[in-house]
Amino acid sequence: MLGAIDIGGTKTGIGIVDAEGKILSYHQRTTDTSELSTWLRICTEQLEDCAREINCRMEDLEGVGINLPGMVDTNRGLLLACSYPGWTQKPVVRIMKELTGIEKIYVENDVNSCAIGEMYFGLQEKYKDFLWMTVSTGIGGAMVSNRQLIRGAWGCAGEIGHVKVEYNDPKLCACGGKGCLEAHASGTAITNEVLLRAKLDSEFNALFEGIHEPINAKSCAMLAREGNQTANEIYQRAAVYLGRGIGYGISLFNPQAVIIGGGVGMSLDLMTEEIEAVLANTVNKSLLPVDIVPTKMGYMGALLGAAALVLYNQK
Ligand SMILES: [Zn+2]
Fold this sequence. Notes:
The structure is a single chain. The chain has helices at residues 36-53, 92-100, 110-121, 181-185, 187-200, 202-210, 217-225, 229-253, 272-282, 301-312, and strands spanning 2-7, 11-17, 23-30, 63-68, 71-73, 78-81, 105-109, 130-135, 139-145, 148-149, 257-261, 291-294. It has 315 residues and is of the alpha/beta class. A 5-stranded mixed sheet has the order 3-2-1-4-7, with helices on both faces. α1 (36-53) packs across α2 and α5 (187-200) packs antiparallel against α8 (229-253). Zinc ion binds next to loops.
């Protein structure tokens, strides 16, 4: 049995997963970002509760994998950089060893973790070389080559969210750069575009009231599925940008597949055709075809990824 803790900026998932990727118990809490050590202690208590619920002891856990929201030094077990004051430069692995009494504690950033999860609890039978992408509030990426995560010189390999995809009318990105993939095709970017279109087009605006949904990327996908042209245009535009960004990834490391998770990933079917059309125009033919597919892990990908850290780090 594997312990898994997925600490996100808003929510934290805590669970116990078996070796086949079945979630045996699970708790979810709103992340308290005031003090990391306090939060780790609460996570440990939750993990103990999860264990109790399935009549197992903490000692029965093979190890615990932890996803952290920021830049992670996996070798030294540190959270290096994070947007919450008091969370940076913290020796998470050491703290958790003391709290849990468990020796095998592993940390990773959440996107790397999802890619590792896919190698154990997802499409591992089909692909050993792939680019994993989270398309959600932001866009993150991780590269797996011959079943090995590529980390890069200081752990930042695969940062596909910040490749430039628009030079003529570049939007400002959260990273401070302009024209980044994240600024043009993330859930946030799509929602911004939907809000803008709704403001300019009262008929389009009224459709959201009609389906009793707030105006955002998710409800826009619902309208696109119903055949609304404006909603579809918004997704096709995002697909063009995704195609450009993915194209760089394919050209650089020749994956078999691009596996996509995150909220916008759930609307991948609306965009696959356009993404493939862009790839056909921008990527050398010898690198194609590449499968563009949603993750097999679904909504629990990050938690499964955290559990998979225990397996990956022992192989
Ligand atoms: Zn950026």
